[in-house]
Amino acid sequence: MKALIALLLIGCIFCEKMLITKEYTDYLKKHVSWEVVDYEDNVFRGWTVEDGKQLLGTVLPANDVPLPLYENDSPNPSTLIWKGDCIHPVRNQGNCGSCWTFGTTGMLSDRCCMNSKDHGWLAPQELVSCDIRNDGCQGGWPAWALQYVIDNKGMVHEDCFKYTHLNQPCPKKCDDGKDWVQSHVCNCRGLKQCLGVDGLKGCLKSGPVAVTFEVCSSFFGYRSGIYKCDCVNGGLHSVTAVGFADTPECHWIVRNSWGETWGDNGYFKMACKSCGMDGKYPNGNVICENVS
Fold it and tell me: Please, which pLDDT band fits residue 289 given cuts at 50, 70 and 90?
């Protein structure tokens, strides 16, 4: 599968070649409700639009089979935020369209730790290098990545296969010399998709969720607050939702994969019915059940 990443720059009225400009930053500060990072402090200052596109590696397939729906059969709390040692630190995907790997391995790493106390990041590089249904740094789809996990009875940890933000061959043994097959842990025995606000909240009650949404150019200027889209049909990005809250308005709490210097220490808040994160894309929001 060869990825075709959608156009990023929709809704940006000032920039044609640069991802972030001083003029566009000033415009955002006057027109959005969330806090915009100062131009001088923006980690994407100097990046081109093409540079930004490389980060948005989630590719919507035309032939994906719908996963079973998560059925939310109990009331949702008004606030739920997963914290603690099992909620792993923010990572940085680098100049590689591997967000689809970080959204899924983040969800799986957190849930595996919560269920089995197996702590530590599972290796995003395994999906980049070994998942032949997807296309490495050129893009992929979270549900397909998790099917790889099921087919291979788990994933290896980072000490087995370190992340390089590059396409490279799938190894036959671990970096630390251990057996590749026997190093696989955290098997996923079933997938469910989380549709709608109620469905995503329901999925979050059992742990973090791999989610997909549309990215507008303004998202690269986010600093804090509850983000809302200013465009449609942006590039697709996959991340890990770790909670939600209903005040001051319904929003998701989300861990990104652009490093801790972006956003609110690598996290952001997203309005519940904004940017398609509530389930616009079938199989875009997904969890592993029975992780062990």
Answer: confident
Rounded to 5 degrees, what angle do the CA atoms 62, 8, 10 make? 110
- List the domain boundaries for the chain: 22-288
For the question of residue 99 being annotated catalytic, the response is: yes
Q: Residue 68: is its pLDDT beyond 50?
A: yes
Query: Which of 88, 157, 237, 251 is flagged as catalytic?
Result: 237
Q: Tell whether domain 22-288 is in CATH 3.30.365.10.
A: no
Is 288 marked active-site?
A: no
Question: How far, in Å, CA of 200 to CA of 215, rounded?
Answer: 19
Handedness of CA 170, 175, 179, 183 (dihedral sign): negative
Q: How many CA atoms lie within 13 A of 19 on its CB side?
A: 23
Q: Is the pTM of this model over 0.85?
A: yes
User: Known catalytic residue: 174?
Assistant: no
Tens-digit pLDDT profile for residues 114-131: 998 788 999 999 999 999
- Strand partners of residue 222: 36
- 18: which strand partners? 48
Q: Pick the catalytic residue: 12, 96, 99, 174?
A: 99
Q: Of 187, 256, 283, 285, which one is the catalytic site residue? A: 256
